[in-house]
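Q: My labmate handed me this sequence with no annotations at all. I'd like to see what the chain might look like in three dimensions before we decide whether it's worth expressing. Could you predict it?
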Amino acid sequence: MRMSPLLPKPSEASDASDVPSGQPSGIAKRTLPRVAVAPFRIRDLNRLFNARWGPMLPNDDGGRSDAFVMLCHLAQLADDPSKRMDHFLDLRTPWMTIGERCELKQVAFASDARWSADELAAIMNVYFQERSALGLTTIGAIDVDLTARKALRLKKQRERQRQSRQQKRMAPKPRLSASSQRASSIFATLKPGDWCPIAALCEELKGAPEFAGCEQSMRSAVHRAVKLGEANGTLITQIRSRVIGMPETLVARKGKR
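A: Here is what I predict for the chain of 257 residues:
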């Protein structure tokens, strides 16, 4: 059996001093803004009611207790709370008499009752398994208190981060294109500050694995790789005139890599 909160009389509702500090209902006066949690708590209460009772609350003390808790939160809304209360009572407690409805609304409007997540969990008899299954965020759990829930969230967060790091490590690295690999090979072959003619570079790269299979088109492969290196900002070229013959292209490193 779940606990039922004691419904304060209208004359008592506005004075939290009338609520004993050890009262099992968990009613306590708080200084937090009234609208801070109400919309989210209303969402969670509806989820709980739907899962437990369906569209209608039971016609017993427990049903009246549930209705009172909901009305206290609806009373905190700025947008026509009385109309929202009537809609809730029409839907969830059609068995309630008009007189009882009016009295319960009056008590809720006058009440300063506030419940923390774990206090409300004790009233509604919510355990962690049900809380997790329904995705409740503003109602705690009898068997796992706030401190324990924070520790669980931190543990799950660390596990997600660990899995994310592992996935990144295991993800295949993008394979460089043949021209990119050859441009890197040219960069590694050149000495800092030296300008090397394309013809000499072709001879030096003949044994490089990146240029394997390019023996018949070595000069074209080197030119394509040099152009890519220029585009990537790792290589630089210049044209040098010769006394005899055609001008030749010289290649050098551009900065550090």
